[in-house]
Structure formats: structure tokens, C-alpha cells
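Holo prediction. Input below; ligand is magnesium ion.
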Amino acid sequence: MPEAAAPPTVDEAVALGLTRDEYALILDKLGRAPNQVELAMFSLLWSEHCAYKHSKKLLRTLPTEGEHVLVGPGENAGVVDAGNGLACAFKVESHNHPSAVEPFQGAATGVGGILRDIFALGARPVAILDSLRFGEPATSERSRYLLDGAVRGIGHYGNSIGVPTIGGEVYFEEPYEQNCLVNAMALGLAERDKLVLSAAVGIGNQIVLYGASTGRDGIGGASVLASAELGDADEDKRPTVQVGDPFEESKLVECSLQLLEQGLIVALQDLGAAGITSSASEMASKGGVGIDLHVDRVPLREADMEPFEIMVSESQERMLCVVEPGRVDEVIALTDRWEVHGTVVGEVTDSGHMRIFDGGTLVGDMPVAALVDDCPIYDLAPEKPSEPIYAPPAATLAPGASMRVALLELISSPNIASRRPLFDQYDPIVQSRTVRRPEECDAAVLVLPGGGGLAASIDGNGRRVAADPYWGTVGVVLECASNLACAGAEPLGTTNNLNFGNPEKPHIAWQLTEAVRGIGDACRALEAPIIGGNVSLYNEGAAAGPIYPTPVIGMVGRLPDAERAGRLGFTQEGDAIAIAGHFHPSLAASELAKLRGEALPDGLPEVDIAAVRAAQEAIREGVREGLLSSAHDIAEGGFAVAVAECCLEGGIGATLDLGPSDDPWTHLFGEGPGGFVVSGHPTAIAQLAERVSLDVFGVVGGDDLRLTIAGDEVDVPLAELHDAHDALRRFFP
Amino acid sequence: MRARVLIRPKAGILDPQGVAVEQALPALGFAGVTNVHVGRIVELDVEDASQLDEMCRRLLANPLVEDYDVQLLGDDGHAAP
Amino acid sequence: MRARVLIRPKAGILDPQGVAVEQALPALGFAGVTNVHVGRIVELDVEDASQLDEMCRRLLANPLVEDYDVQLLGDDGHAAP
Amino acid sequence: MKFGVVQFPGSCDEVDAQAAAARVGEAVLLWHRDRDLQGCDAIVVPGGFSYGDYLRAGAIARFSPAMESVIEFADAGGLVLGICNGFQVLCEAGLLPGALLPNANRRFTFRQVDLDVVNGDTAFTRACAPGERLSIPAKHSWGRYYAPEDQLDELEAAGHVVLRYDPAQNFNGSLRDIAGVTNAAGNVFGLMPHPEHAVDALTGSTDGLRIFESMALSARGVHA
Ligand SMILES: Nc1ncnc2c1ncn2[C@@H]1O[C@H](COP(=O)(O)OP(=O)(O)O)[C@@H](O)[C@H]1O
Ligand SMILES: [Mg+2]
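Structure of the complex:
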């Protein structure tokens, strides 16, 4: 093939993130040195982000099959059967590093990216959930800035594009001070038989690019390849920050769904990280075909971009589809109607190669298999650290504080206080499906045609996973399923985002390995298979050290009747209050332990996963039968905080007597999976007691929360609880 | 003294607002308008004009995505020569 | 020719952004800043500068709540005298 | 009774508005590029972020061909309802008095708000009981209603102020807590809250139905 300049050196390859061995392997695969365009493409597809070099072997151990799974890992998102001929696509994805640089645009483009993964399957995006981690907001101005920017960014994109943000979670811990986490999950709905996959098929079919024009977004990394035309003087022509355009994407959604509705395209793929390089290569790989691309036909936002820049550009809001030659005109016409003007940029070939042309000249030629399949995969060298790797948190609770003070401190602590000041900035109701809004229920609930419902929840607890990567992760998966149970839903499938530090370090490799083992065991036991996810590694700084290991779990479940969706808040004066389930509270790695400034324990209590599942089923059936006025799973802050949350959401008080106790602090504030606070008519609670171990402790009513334990009484007026619970408000001036 | 800060999207950064305006104008019968960019202005009275640059970097502009220009205004409200 | 349109909230209309900036500055150690107002700029290349005023009235500004100024820029990008 | 809901690029709540209107009549979507209003008896300009709300909320959408027909339709006395972004578009188009400005709290804000029906004798509120309170969600970042003081006095005197926020819930800083106004002729109505998102107890409240029921009565010439 024509070779213009001398090929890039191995040092340039290293500067692009490849190892010398990987570069040698590329030479071997090509039988020659890669030129500039080829090296740029290899460096992207052989990156951790695209090739999963350090996680693939672990991911292969996850359960990915089940009766409800329609599409498992490997596509842009996984898909489960939502009943009535409907399919639900969902996935969580991270945008951590961009958000740490510029939180507003980083979070906004993160939402834009996950939404594209959903409608790339032909599913209309119907919901967004977000999972956020920052440093301590009370003491860190940077964390307040990142929090505000990320929340504004998520709202900006989701609100503007008309997809409701129905749930999420946010936690604040020192180890996220330098490396914040911004994960976004999206759900989409499609008719089962209208799903489309991304495999390029049909030799001679045309490749059409539509959406935004292509600029120099996100190619900073590849700039070592820049030739003289665009030297350091023009560095700022290569923006490090990508700007999202939800307006452009809203047109992309409608246009893409109409293209499918009218049967005009045979395959669809979003352009995500690694731009057209990974999109085209993965389409070719999945279809077992080759693709010819003509970079000179790609509509540009800026003049004189080099071929390699076009190939690696991460400009947002772009889609690629495969079209039969006879259908091209109709496709272009429809993209014009939606003002997302499509262009034929290439075609499907039988060459098995990715071939890049610029004005007719071949400027890159690589076997698809070499690009997509031949990246080396590495074994981890896991090793449990010999001493603690995380410093104890700063104590914020005075020693000797009373239980009343502890309760108020917990209720107002950043990890437990109401998230309303965040989700007030999100539209939770557009599209008219939202039956349970944030804080009304442990899981968000959407109504489906026919009256059934979908429930969704996203969860993580880095501190507990740091204390015990296996049991901590098991607990996260169980909490997610408990949230669904409180809504009356059973899990259909699970997605996950693995946010960890540098996997080449033995103790991070150990965290990762144990966490994935925990996900696998818990998902198998719950029959909630993994249908997709994402991995974000190297979340650590030289000085700052690694983040808490943070597997974020997203689950979607089904309810037969949305009218019967569960509620979190007490509703009925005189209802009995009970603690139900398989619950063995412990203060290890709890919120109270954090407020006390205690170091992380080495390990968490083991959990009987099957027993917790049984408890979840009992709660779920109780909710479905309408036995229960309210159901709420016990999580951060333990039983006392859970009861307080039921009072606050219901706007009604409660009086409880837990009787004698050898360890009142653990009974009130201890944490662990499998516990629920339920309320209902005494006879209904008695019925539930026949199915799950349960203790009645009190009754709903009044304007105070009154807790008596071992003779001590904690009495807090609702108004005082409410003010404490509103503590995050001050971070959103 | 009155000052004006002009804040614009950096060259090379996508400017969705500029694009939207540029595409809207022909329909309104305004032809031949190109290269449209939308930014912000902040006008303020300062005692110490030497602080303006730092103010821009720390609060008024987002240096990652925006360029800014500081203009000192005469009493007539026009840029001083 | 390059033109710049400055668009500001009319005097007397609450300008929350201006207020927010004014309130944020002292915390950052910038004293003596008052009378802060935040507006928009639109910069564009026009073939026929005589269209600018109508463009502003019809699209770029909302005369009920905003004042605007048109500046014609020289090639150096500064306001022509 | 046939409702037409205008669909702009960037509209978000048009399908919700269509579904809400379909509870009291027939409802179709009208593409922003088409001038033909398909013989509709009433037009809804829906919520969302038409043209991304870039430049100024509603500023660009008002120039679409469909809006030109809507303006003619309104001038001829046809019923036009503008919701949220649609309210902004109608103000920009000069069909309604005043303007909508960025929220006083400088954030997009979602809140279920209580609205007092100040004038229950309009084409858009006649199905409301006198002094009725409606619980309807609001969600926007450009919702601060503004008009010059003297004009506000006239609007109030003439009964053109139709809905007010509970003063404690006026997060956007609208002057005189104004949530919805009509034009002088009374055939054009705009409000920031979303009645189309309050038509089913399952997803919230049903109070928003009053607005659509009122329009149906009015179109049939029924006067409460
Ligand atoms: N932690 C994980 N668990 C299961 N599947 C995963 C995980 N991480 C990534 N995957 C799957 O790997 C595939 C590639 O992921 P990704 O590179 O994020 O795709 P995209 O570029 O379309 O977002 C997807 O099908 C995704 O679901
Ligand atoms: Mg994808």
C-alpha cells in the first residue's frame, strides 16, 4: 500500500498508550510497520477502554444467561423480556475522567453516550438513573464544584432530550476527592421483534454516517501523530473537553427510530469512545465482513482535518448505519427531514479488512480481526493487601453523643440526607410513565402498556466493598434486588459498572477479582443475570491513592400491576410497624462507624444469600397482594434511619419500642442486607409473619418519631427530622 | 470603573447555540450570515481593575471551554481606546 | 464583515445571574465589585450589515426584556471607531 | 373535537400532550414544517426544548411554518394552548403578553405546584370549580413570568391572569406569582406548569384534565 511519510516510531506507539510488546504484535499482524492512521486506530482499539485487557477474563466468569435475557453482553446494551411483546434494553456506563476535568460537560456527554447505546438497539430511551461519587462536600470546595457541575450536566442533557431521570444514588467519601465517579444508566423500550443489532451485513451495502459533523474532539491523546500542518501552536484547536448537544441527539433518537420503523436500515451503531474507528471495526467484526471508509466524505466541523484525526475523533451525537444500496436515497431523505443529514461514507466488503481511503488513495489497511480480536488480554496478579490501604475517615460525631444526636447526625450526613436538592433538578415525569418518583419508593417504577410495570434501581457502596470486596459486593447486589422487592418487582437482569483503581497493582487486582466473584455469585443466586455493563479502571492518583473499589449495580425488574407498586412512606395512622426479613445488623463499615471516624474493618459478616432472597420474595408478594401500606429496605444508617425515612416520606410519625437489648447501638444503627421496615394493618402484618421472620415494634401515628430501646427513649419531632434531612440543600445555592 | 468581559466558546469547541442561530436565520430571510458564535458578557463596576483577569479565570469564565476578553469602559460605556 | 451584538437584561429587570456573580465574588476574595450584569453576545459574519438591526429585533434579542448594541468589528476583531 | 399538537425538533412533551388531549377528543401531531393545521379545532404548542432553547427559550420555534399558521388561526379566534416551552413560544410570537425569563433560582427545577384558578371563566378553565386549586407539576429553567408593571395591572384588572402559584411555591420568581395568562381576546392561553402531566392518578394527579375539558367545552360552544 502507498506509504507517504516514514511510519511512526515505537516511541510514538508508546506515547499512544501501547506497550512495546503490543507494538511488536501489531507489526507481526500487519507484516509491516503501521502507518499514522493505522497506529492511531490500533492504539484506540487496543486500549483498556475498548479491549478490556485487564477485565475480560473476569467478565467471562459472570452469569449472562436466563429465561428473561434476549440480548446479553456484547451488544451496545443488554436486553430483557419485559412481557407483552416488549423488550427492555438497559446499561450503565461511566464518564469518570471527563467529569473530573469538566463536570458539566463530562456528565452531560456521559448521559448522551449511554442514551445512544440504548437507541442503537432500536429501543426508545425511557429512563435515566445516575450514580455519583465525590469527596466530602462539607470540607472540599472541589467536591462541591464537581457535584454541582455533574448534577447540572445530567439534568441539562436528560431534561433537554425528554428522557426522565427517575432515580440514582450519590455518596461522598474522601477517596473520591481526586477521582470522582459519574456513572449513568439508561433504559429503553422496544417491541421485541423490532430490535436491531450492530453487525454489519450484506456485501456491497452502504455505510451511512448521520448526526453531528466531525471535529477535533477528544483526539488530544492522538496528537503526537499530528503532522506539521497542525503543530503545538494550534494545540487549543484540539479541545480536551467535548461539548454535548442534547438538541442534536433528540433529533438523532427520532430519526433513528423512524429509520428502523420504516425498515430502511439493516444495522445500527452509535459512535462512542474511539469514534468511527471502533464503531466501524466492531460492526465489521460482528458481521464477519470488511469495511471501506472514505474519510474525505465525512462532514467536518473544521477545515483540513487529517485522516487520522477524522478516524479517532470523539465528536458526540453521531450514528452509523448499514443500508442496502437501493434504500440509500430514502435514508438520506429521512435524515434530512430530521436535520441530522446523512452521508454515505463507505461500504461493506468481503475483504475482511478495514480499509481507509482519502480522496481515493488508500491510507490505511488492516485485518478487522487484528484490530478487534487480537489485542492481548492480561492475567491479573491479585493479592490481598497486608495492611489497610485507606486512611480512617475524619470523625464528625462527638464521642459519647446520645442516640438522639447520632440519629440526627446520620439523617443529616451527606450519605443519608435527602437527595431532593439533586433530583429536583431532573425531570422525572416526561413520557408519562412514571408511577413512582424519587423518594416515593426504593425503586423507580414505570407503567407499561397493558398496566404492568418496570422497576429500576442502581446501587453501590464503596466503603463496604473496600472493607470486604466479596461480601461488600454481594451486599450491593442484594440491596439492588431488595429495592426492587419493595416496589413489588422481581429482577429480570442486571448491569454493572466496575469502577476501580489500577488493576496492574496486586491489591487492586484482588479487589476487582473478589468483587466480580461477588457479583457472579449473587446474580446467580438471584437468577438476575448480567446483561451488560462497563469497566472504568485506573481511578487513582499518585498522591491520592485509589478510589474505594466501586462496583455499581443496576437492576431492572417487572411488576404485574403498576397500580400495586410499593411505597416507602408510612401512610396509615394506626398501622403496625415491623422489621422483617433475614437481618443481622453490624456496625462494621456502617455510616455510624464512619461518623465515629473508625478505620475500615478487615472483612464483613458473611451473608446467607438464599435466605435474603427468600425474604425479598416474601416482601415482594406482600406488596403485590396489597398487604403492605409501606415497605422500605434497611440500608445506610440501619433500622432507626430507615424508620425515620418512612416517617419523613409519609409525613407522619411513629412510636416504637424495641424492648430490652444487649447492644442498642447495633440494633438501631447496624447495617447489613436482608432487612425491611414494613407497615400495614395489624392483621395484614400477621399474615406476612407466616411467610417471613418478622417482629412488630410499633405503630404509625403522631408528629414525632419515638423510639424506645433498653429503656432509653429517642424522641424527635418530624419538623426537626425534616430540617436535618434537608442538609444537602446548602450545597446547591 | 466599569468593565466588560466578553466570554466565548474556544475555537474548535462545538458551539450548539451558534449553529442553531446560523441555521435559523435563512428561514427568516437573512441570507449570507456565517460563522455565528454565541457567548456571554459580564459587565461590572470594579475598584481594582487588576483583579479582573483572575476573576475571569476563577469565576466568570470556564477556561477549559471558553476564551475571554476584558474591556475597560469609559463613562460613555464604550471601549476605551 | 464581522459584527458583534451585545444583549443585556433591561434596567430594572431582575438579573439573577448578575446577582449570583456579585454575591460569589467576595467569598473568592474580590472586594468592591458592584452593579454586575450578565448578558449574551452574538458574533457573526454578515454580508449586509444593514440587516443587523432587524435581526436583533426579530431574533437575537427580545426588545421587551433586553437591550442590544451592535458593534461592527474591524479585521483585528476590535470595535471600529 | 380535534386537537393539533405542534411538534418541533427538540419538543419533549408533545406525545404526552397528545395523549392528554386524546382523553377528551381526537388529537394529532402537526409537523413544524407543515402549514396545514389539518382542520383542528384547537392547537397545543407543547413543552420541551424546541431548537434546544438555544439563544432564548422559544425564540427560534416561533418562526416555523406551522407557527405562522397557528398565528393566523389564533388571530381568527381559534383556541391555542401553550404549555411551558409552548408558553414561551407564544410570548415570543406576540400572541401572549409578557415574556419568560430564567428562573430566579437559576436552575432547572421540577416541582409539583399548587395553582389557584384566579379566573374560572375562561375558555381554558371553565371546567374548574370557582376558587379551585390544581396540583400540577412544573419543570423548567426559563419560567419567570415578566411584564411591565402597568401591563400587569391591566392583565389583572381584565382577568387575563388565569392561574397563580401558591406564593410559597413560586420558585421561578414570576411577577405576582403568575403561572398562566390569556390574551385579550381570551382564545390564547399559556402556562408554565404541565397539565398534560396531571391527567392520571396513577402517574400523579388528574387536575390537569380540567384544562383540556374546558377547551373541549369551549370548542363545542358550551359556556359554563
Ligand atoms: N462490567 C461488565 N459486565 C458485563 N458486560 C460488560 C461489562 N463491561 C463491559 N461489558 C460489555 O462489553 C461490551 C462493550 O462495552 P462498551 O465498550 O462500553 O460498549 P460501548 O462502546 O457500546 O459503550 C458491551 O456489550 C458491554 O455491555
Ligand atoms: Mg455503543
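The pocket of adenosine-5'-diphosphate (ligand 1) is lined by residues A 50, 59, 62, 73-76, 91, 93, 117, 272-273, 496, 498, 530, 532-535 (CB under 6 Å). That is the main takeaway for now.
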